[in-house]
Write a structure and sequence with these properties.
It is a single chain. The chain is mostly helical. The protein has one domain. It has 13 helices and no strands. The protein is globular, with a radius of gyration of 20 Å.
Length: 310
């Protein structure tokens, strides 16, 4: 299988797997489990899964002392993104939260412009306007009621933390590190953060029946180990642009689960908001790739013309 084909498959699997968060998290909330406890066990179970993958692929666990702060920072960003997303599910439908989370590629574009000198084009500005319009449609329902402002703020924090994680992986020394190793240590740092937040077990809600353990295991396997490992590998194989495009599967998966499993309402207004946000973000991430291909073609054609004349 070609590397790019493998990368596309991994990106698609990662996005769809992350979209399963509500499928496992909402029943745990229904049992009275809090976000910190859910995420502690989610990371705790995901870490040995990642370790097993590393052993199977004979990857080294060794890291340099200078890499430890970066890995810890990536872990805290992932933990922050997970925590704020889970907390937002207490205030809004899972499908809407997951769709609003999908603004993270736009945030990546803004971060790259502000801190790495990338030019903010008219296309990006237009996409930002489309994204804002989509969020407004999601924010105000057809009956005039609005979704929770607190929930919306939590999703935006989650998206920002995820955007910073993507930039951090691509714009630091971690870019050359094995993707499984990055994921393993990021999860280890994240679990440590939730251990602190739960008072090292003092305030930890332990799953008390087999169904709760299945849900925690599903979170660990699908939306954590598989998702984080595959998205990091996809970035290495095909780059951040195609991987971000495939991120459209995240809200689509969450919306399907919300409607089919939890009976969430899918109104025309919500559909329009989802379409606007996905279209805007896809334009942002796809536009750069198209521009690069046009520039490459423009550079190659004169050479081809000279060759044909010669």
């Amino acid at each position: 299988m070609k590397i790019r084909t493998k990368g596309y498959i991994m990106g698609a699997v990662a996005s769809a797997a992350y979209g399963t968060n509500p499928l496992f998290a909402l029943p745990l909330f229904g049992e009275g489990m809090d976000s910190d406890s859910i995420l502690f066990f989610r990371y705790l179970l995901a870490i040995p899964m990642m370790a097993a993958l590393m052993l199977i692929r004979k990857e080294s666990f060794a890291i340099k002392p200078s890499e430890l702060p970066l890995l810890a920072a990536m872990g805290l960003l992932v933990a922050t993104s997970s925590l704020t997303l889970f907390e937002s599910l207490r205030f809004m439908d899972a499908g809407i939260a997951s769709t609003m989370l999908f603004v993270y590629p736009v945030m990546v574009a803004l971060i790259m412009t502000a801190f790495f000198g990338e030019r903010l084009t008219m296309r990006t500005l237009g996409c930002l306007a489309l994204t804002a319009a989509g969020v407004v449609l999601l924010y105000r329902q057809s009956d005039g009621a609005t979704i929770s402002a607190k929930g919306s703020m939590l999703v935006m924090v989650s998206a920002l933390a995820y955007a910073l994680y993507i930039v951090g992986v691509n714009r630091s020394r971690l870019k050359e590190m094995n993707s499984l190793k990055i994921t393993f240590y990021a999860l280890l740092a994240g679990m440590s953060a939730f251990a602190v937040r739960t008072g090292f077990g003092e305030h930890l809600f332990i799953p008390c029946n087999w169904q709760m353990w299945i849900d925690v295991g599903g979170l660990a396997l699908f939306s954590t180990a598989l998702s984080f490992a595959f998205i990091t590998m996809a970035i290495h194989y095909i780059g951040s642009t195609p991987t971000a495009i495939l991120g459209a599967l995240e809200p689509v998966t969450a919306i399907i689960i919300g409607v089919m499993v939890f009976g969430e309402h899918l109104t025309p207004r919500i559909v329009c908001g989802v379409v606007l946000i996905i279209a805007a973000v896809t334009m942002v991430v796809a536009g750069g790739a198209v521009s690069q291909r046009i520039k490459a073609a423009a550079h190659y054609l004169p050479r081809l013309h000279r060759h044909s004349r010669g």
